């Protein structure tokens, strides 16, 4: 009788659990719904928002905290370095425990660090709190990419990532403008408080609105040996290396602009902080245009064809800006128009390279996305520090760096990606 009652109790608990999960599932969005894609885009956007929104505040932060240009730019590079390192941790954690718990925890850490940023009274505290902010913010992009790979096939993932990038770009389009007005009206501290609020809202929405995308059979061990084996398998894959390097060099060109644009446009060319975002919106419009072009071309071209076209457009934009700067054509549009052209290419390149890099690793997409993001951010942070170190008060260093990065990305494609394409990405 006792064993019968125990058995009946277990059955009742199991039935209750199934009924609860079924009820909860009905309250959540379908993984393939457009609203899930929008929420993933909003989650991924947190990382870029922490950069774009405070760009207009860099000069005023330096004045407020009695810091030089190099020290203020260090808050940007330190953020990128922390962003890169944290991905190596949160990727394997997400492969073990699932995407949702890690991304929610990361956003809560981001919110706390953002409040500390707002309360900073010296540049050292701000740099440290920006590093902590990066540790939490890294969860959004790395797990957003992994979730797309969880849900879709590699070729479909390239299209979804282009759509996701288009949606995500809306936030950076308005962020610098909003940040500029906040700096003038409320002070630079208000930007970090707004970021903290955004992170808290996103943590709640993801907790109650999106089901766990990772399949239970894909969970990985956290043993050091297993982690090393996974990272070694990913890092030794030539296809992964090719797509990752091409992406990283292209993104480094974008980051060279992010690192130097506020000093070039505001300090050198005299753009007002509250107007900085309007010019930045032109750059984002180019990026969105590239994303939409990739989506449209994806209906009749393979990803490799889209990728090579995007790289050629990026080289043209970067080369044009460098040529104008070398001939001392110094005005706002000599920077904005070539960079917009460069960004059209970036919008075509990034989704294809992201999907291609993760194509071979469906069972450890979190770790692959983490290593991909680490490399991307490490290269970008290095380029950002070089732009800050060699900044000569004009647009020359920034423009030359963008041109070099875009050319190196094309070379990486020709030497690695074209010879070792991902399955389904083969050149036509």
Commentary on this structure:
This protein is an all-alpha fold and 428 residues long. It has a single domain (32-209, 222-417), classed as Up-down Bundle (Growth Hormone, Chain: A). It is built from 18 helices and no strands. The protein has helices at 2-27, 34-44, 46-52, 58-64, 69-97, 99-119, 123-137, 139-151, 154-168, 170-186, 189-209, 224-235, 238-268, 273-297, 303-326, 332-358, 365-390, 396-417. The longest helix has 31 residues, at 238-268. The relative contact order is 0.15.
Shape: globular
Largest sheet: none
Structural class comes to mainly alpha
CATH topology: Growth Hormone, Chain: A
Proportion of beta-strand residues: under 5%
Compute the number of structural domains.
1
Number of helices in the DSSP assignment: 18
Q: Quaternary status of these chains?
A: single chain
CATH class identity:
Mainly Alpha
Query: How many strands appear in the DSSP assignment?
Result: 0
Provide the CATH superfamily.
MFS general substrate transporter like domains
Write the layout of secondary structure elements.
Blueprint: H1 2-27, H2 34-44, H3 46-52, H4 58-64, H5 69-97, H6 99-119, H7 123-137, H8 139-151, H9 154-168, H10 170-186, H11 189-209, H12 224-235, H13 238-268, H14 273-297, H15 303-326, H16 332-358, H17 365-390, H18 396-417
Helix pairs in contact: 2-8, 2-9, 2-11, 4-5, 5-6, 5-7, 5-17, 6-7, 6-8, 6-11, 8-9, 8-17, 9-14, 9-16, 10-14, 13-16, 13-17, 13-18, 14-16, 15-16, 15-18
């Amino acid at each position: 009788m006792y064993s019968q009652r125990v058995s009946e109790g277990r059955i009742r608990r199991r039935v209750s659990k199934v009924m609860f999960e079924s009820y909860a599932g009905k309250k959540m969005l379908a993984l393939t719904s457009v609203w899930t894609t929008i929420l993933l885009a909003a989650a991924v956007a947190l990382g870029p928002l922490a950069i774009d929104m405070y760009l207009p505040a860099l000069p005023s932060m330096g004045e407020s905290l009695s810091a030089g240009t190099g020290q203020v730019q260090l808050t940007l590079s330190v953020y990128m370095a922390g962003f890169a390192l944290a991905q190596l941790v949160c990727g394997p954690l997400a492969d073990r425990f699932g995407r949702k718990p890690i991304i929610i925890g990361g956003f809560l850490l981001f919110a706390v660090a953002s409040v500390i940023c707002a309360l900073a009274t010296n540049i050292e505290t701000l740099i440290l709190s920006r590093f902590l902010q990066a540790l939490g913010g890294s969860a959004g992009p790395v797990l957003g990419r992994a979730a797309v790979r969880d849900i879709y096939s590699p070729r479909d993932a390239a299209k979804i990532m282009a759509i996701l990038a288009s949606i995500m770009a809306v936030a950076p389009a308005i962020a610098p403008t909003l940040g500029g007005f906040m700096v003038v009206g409320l002070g630079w501290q208000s930007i970090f408080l707004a970021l903290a609020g955004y992170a808290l809202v996103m943590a709640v929405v993801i907790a109650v609105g999106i089901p766990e995308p990772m399949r239970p059979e894909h969970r990985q061990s956290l043993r050091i040996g297993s982690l090393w084996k996974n990272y070694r398998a990913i890092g030794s894959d030539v296809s992964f290396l090719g797509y990752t390097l091409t992406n990283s060099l292209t993104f480094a060109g974008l980051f060279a602009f992010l690192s130097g644009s506020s000093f070039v446009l505001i300090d050198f060319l005299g753009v007002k902080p509250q107007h900085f975002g309007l010019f930045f919106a032109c750059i984002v419009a180019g990026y969105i245009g590239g994303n939409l072009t990739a989506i449209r071309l994806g209906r009749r071209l393979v990803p490799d064809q889209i990728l090579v076209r995007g790289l050629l457009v990026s080289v043209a934009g970067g080369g044009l800006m460098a040529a104008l700067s070398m001939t001392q054509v110094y005005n706002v549009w000599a920077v904005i128009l070539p960079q917009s052209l460069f960004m059209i290419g970036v919008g075509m390149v990034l989704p294809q390279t992201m999907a291609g890099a993760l194509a071979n690793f469906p069972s450890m997409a979190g770790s692959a996305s983490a290593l991909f993001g680490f490399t991307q951010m490490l290269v970008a942070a290095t380029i950002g520090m070089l732009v800050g170190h060699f900044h000569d008060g004009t647009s020359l260093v920034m423009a030359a760096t963008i041109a070099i990065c875009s050319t190196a990305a094309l070379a990486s494609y020709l030497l690695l990606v074209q010879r070792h394409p991902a399955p389904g990405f083969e050149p036509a």
